[in-house]
Amino acid sequence: MQSLQLDLGDRSYAIHIGSKLISRGDLITPLLEGKQILIVTNTTVGPIYLETLKAGLLESRADLEIEICILPDGEAYKDIAHLEKIWNRLLEAGFNRKATLLALGGGVIGDMSGFAAACYQRGVNFIQLPTTLLSQVDSSVGGKTGVNHPLGKNMLGAFWQPRLVLADTSSLQTLPKRELAAGMAEVIKYGLLGDSELLLWLETHIQGLMQGDEQLLTEAIARSCQCKATIVAEDEREAGQRALLNLGHTFGHAIETEMGYGQWLHGEAVAAGMWLAADLSRRLGWLEASDCERVEKLLKAAQLPVRPPKEMTVDQFLKHMAVDKKNIDGQLRLVLLEHLGKAKLHSLTELEELKACLNSALG
Ligand code: NAD
Ligand code: MG
């Protein structure tokens, strides 16, 4: 097991990463304020891991009151109506302010449980047990919680930090390969934006990682969390540095929006977006052609797409990128690469290179 600490003053917490952590009730029970626990999970993850989690908790502390809330699986259910189901369970069970929510699942369950915890009786504790690679390296770290609104993704939410994150690498064995690859896109992102050593390490170990080697996964997750934790600790509420975590995401959001959410997984769109960011950085004179080839090779080895969907047009990209929330004052601000391992926020004053980059990728 590897551990790191996210430093946020009195909201600091530990992230433990390793094999079979879902059964480690002993890591959870010392953090409980009371004895009431609501486990929130979904119809896919629940049947595989719920019993192990419950048994570990009760073994560590027999007097726990454990309630369960099982939500339907999917981004489509990340909404207020299903948030209400969590609150209903808490209220029906008579849970008080010392209750703790445990989020057992991917980013959807984590974001919803966190927001439910932030609001219940003005805020109760919650603990993340992320079971996708994406949620282990991204959504469970940093305290952003929330749900979607019909008019926009993640439009309702709160910053609410968990008390603990347990990233169980064994749970990745049951994760579909395509979801593993999508999570790997975010791992590669950390290497590209802030850690050239991680990037080199990934280039060496990508096969083993994709085959599910738990020791390698532990290392990759720990280094990714460290990278995100460092940035979040400096900029908890996204005033500056935290924007660098959006490398590849402005292009990616354009792909997701145009193709319809669900066609392309988020990580797949981000992968193509990172390649575009690298190519644009080359056109601006910061990266070498050989750097772009390295990015392409690594993404391909992680079974990720490296070009945007052919059916998209330059105009569609520009339309979606212009409304991206990273925009301030009408200038298109993009996260680009100064070199491999260092990202920077750049204001594009003219669109020529961007258009050339998109034209060539779509051509
Ligand atoms: P997800 O939660 O939908 O999980 C993907 C799929 O894998 C689901 O079908 C799920 O049931 C299944 N699954 C999960 N764990 C499994 C396991 N161990 N074995 C088998 N199947 C398993 O998607 P995700 O990629 O984990 O997260 C995406 C969500 O995270 C989005 O809603 C996004 O907005 C959010 N997100 C939040 C942040 C943040 O900072 N809060 C950051 C990034 C993403
Ligand atoms: Mg992302």
Describe the structure.
It is an enzyme of class 4 (lyase). It catalyses: 7-phospho-2-dehydro-3-deoxy-D-arabino-heptonate = 3-dehydroquinate + phosphate. It holds the Pfam family DHQS_C. Catalyzes the conversion of 3-deoxy-D-arabino-heptulosonate 7-phosphate (DAHP) to dehydroquinate (DHQ). Pathway: Metabolic intermediate biosynthesis; chorismate biosynthesis; chorismate from D-erythrose 4-phosphate and phosphoenolpyruvate: step 2/7. With about 375 residues, this protein is an alpha/beta fold. The protein folds into 2 domains: about 1-170, Rossmann fold; about 190-360, Dehydroquinate synthase-like - alpha domain (Dehydroquinate synthase-like, alpha domain, Up-down Bundle). The chain has 13 helices and 11 strands. It has helices at about 25-30, 45-60, 80-90, 105-120, 135-140, 175-195, 195-210, 215-235, 250-260, 265-285, 290-300, 315-320, 350-360; strands at about 1-5, 15-20, 35-40, 65-70, 100-105, 125-130, 145-150, 150-160, 165-170, 330-340, 340-350. The strands form 3 sheets. It has a 7-stranded mixed beta sheet with strand order 1-2-9-6-5-3-4, sandwiched between helices. The chain has a two-stranded antiparallel sheet with strand order 7-8. The protein has a two-stranded antiparallel sheet with strand order 10-11. Helix 6 runs parallel beside helix 10 (about 265-285). The N and C termini lie far apart (about 45 Å). The mean pLDDT is about 95. Magnesium ion binds near residues 138, 266 and 270.
